[in-house]
UniProtKB/TrEMBL annotation:
UniProt KW Transcription regulation keyword: yes
InterPro entries linked: LysR_HTH_N, LysR_subst-bd, WH-like_DNA-bd_sf, WH_DNA-bd_sf
Alphabetical UniProt keywords: DNA-binding, Transcription, Transcription regulation
GO molecular function annotations of the record: DNA-binding transcription factor activity; transcription cis-regulatory region binding
PROSITE patterns: HTH_LYSR
A Pfam family per the record: HTH_1
rRNA-binding among keywords: no
Segments forming domain HTH lysR-type: 7-63
Family annotation (PANTHER family): HTH-TYPE TRANSCRIPTIONAL REGULATOR (PTHR30126), TRANSCRIPTIONAL REGULATOR-RELATED (PTHR30126:SF88)
Name of the protein in question: LysR family transcriptional regulator
Family: Belongs to the LysR transcriptional regulatory family.
Length: 304
């Protein structure tokens, strides 16, 4: 195995000389004698066979070769510091990875805010995000794939807290045949039209949600695909209201005038897989989810 002739300490001294403007200033910044600073750089140049510095008046400046080599050395020094910070984080119990399953109903803007707030705390922690539909988050918990889950149902053997309620509204394109009836709708009217639903991403205990009695039902795997289909006049469905506000305002979707069942509600819960042994990264992320959701609900605009 080859061993480098130069050391990170030598490159750090060279960097200090350049940034401080001279040997004496670097020695003071590094709390070393000027002779030791001079010796380390001289030794580094001897080992490499390349001149790294030149004296310009009273300042030490990098040569062309020195500039190229120090640029690479800075990357190595930065990596070494990150390595030490990672070791400190691991010694404190900060996990190298946190996995989270999030139901597709959870507002994207809140999820982004959570991750934005979490990033400064977790520079040495990878985040593995799994987006799920219906029982998908439950599967991730049961199969021990995640540390945290946001789910529409708490599976047996786990505890969780309700985060928020999601309200669904039955909608279709304004030109859809159901709207053209021009009257209050009954269940029989729905049964004669195409209903677009999303497939459960879970496999252990897959389940359906809501009314599924239409004679014609199409199933897709992506909530976004369902939204696009309904916005383009293909079928109807119950969609989460917070996901379709723009489409409602733009007139791409219109609530169906159902006599009964136009709206329905579903709760999302936060579940920490193993709260008794959860590490600091998992706890931090869970607490941020609670805080961001609470703040989002409190600052939600009131309807007139």
């Amino acid at each position: 195995m080859k061993i480098p002739r130069s050391t990170l300490e030598q490159w750090q001294v060279l960097q200090a000389i350049v940034e401080c403007g001279g040997y004496a200033q670097a020695a003071e910044a590094l709390h070393r004698s000027q002779s030791s600073v001079s010796y380390m750089v001289a030794k580094l140049q001897e080992q490499l066979g390349v001149e790294l510095l030149e004296i310009d008046g009273r300042r030490a400046r990098l040569t062309q070769n020195g500039t190229a080599l120090l640029a690479k050395a800075r990357e190595l020094l930065g990596g070494a510091f990150q390595l030490e910070q990672l070791a400190t984080s691991l010694a404190e119990g900060w996990e190298p990875q946190v996995s989270i399953a999030v139901d597709s109903l959870f507002p994207v803007e809140l999820l982004v805010q959570v991750l934005r707030d979490f990033e400064p705390w977790a520079q040495h922690t990878r985040v593995n995000l799994e987006e799920t539909v219906l029982s998908g988050s439950e599967d991730a918990l049961v199969e021990q794939r995640v540390d945290i889950a946001i789910a529409s149902r708490i599976p047996s053997g786990f505890l969780g807290d309700v985060l928020m309620d999601i309200e669904f509204v039955a909608v279709a394109h304004p030109c859809h045949a159901l709207h053209e009836l021009g009257r209050e709708l009954e269940v029989e009217d729905l049964g004669r039209n195409l209903h677009i639903v999303v497939r459960d991403s879970g496999t252990l205990n897959p389940r359906d949600h809501g009314w599924l009695s239409s004679n014609q039902r199409w199933t897709v795997t992506s909530p976004h695909t369902r939204l696009e289909m309904i916005c383009n006049g293909l079928g109807f469905g119950w969609l989460p209201e917070h996901k379709i506000r723009t489409q409602l305002e733009q007139g791409l979707l219109k609530p169906l005038p159902l006599r009964v069942g136009q709206r329905r509600k579903l709760s999302l819960s936060l579940i920490v897989a193993n709260p008794e042994v959860a590490g600091p990264a998992t706890c931090r992320l869970a607490n941020l989810i609670r805080k961001v959701v609470k703040d989002g609900i409190e600052h939600r605009p009131l309807c007139g």
